[in-house]
Each structure stands twice: as structure tokens, then as C-alpha cells.
Write a structure and sequence with these properties.
Layout: H1 2-8, H2 12-22, H3 28-33
Amino acid sequence: MEQTFIMIKPDGVQRGLVIWFLFPVSGEDSSVFN
């Protein structure tokens, strides 16, 4: 799935979600996406 997201290259917030999927963060950063 992650590869698919990279291929699509979504804009702005969507792109941020891609980074979140590739690099799951803990605590403070994850709360931003939540």
C-alpha cells in the first residue's frame, strides 16, 4: 500500500499521511494526524 501512495503522490495533507504510513510516529506527532 505504501508504494501505491508514493506512486500517486497526493498533495499536502494526503502526502503527510503517506509519511505517517511510511514512518509511524509515536505520541505527539501521531496526535497531529489524529
